[in-house]
Specification:
This protein is α+β, with helices and mostly antiparallel strands. It has two helices and three strands, in the order ββαβα.
Amino acid sequence: MPEADCVITVDRLTRRFGPKLALDEVNLRVPRGAVFGLVGANGAGKTTLIKHLLGLLKPQAGAVRVFDRDPVADPVGVLSRVGYLAEDNDLPGWMRIDEL
């Protein structure tokens, strides 16, 4: 599938946390208009992949494009077009919404 037809493109994305390999050369293409989900056991790398798609983690190897933008280099261009609701809140309890 041509990259121009994809809203998400992941090429050989790799991520380690110390000795633990969380993502091992992951490839993913999501075409425009598709509905998809990430399914897997705890520790399978779903949240790690999502954090890369949002630009919250920088790839150690490989590449990520969302709406034809690099989420790390252009987080506003990506985050202005996606929504994400995390299961856990990693923000400090004292932080107000306008401080995000």
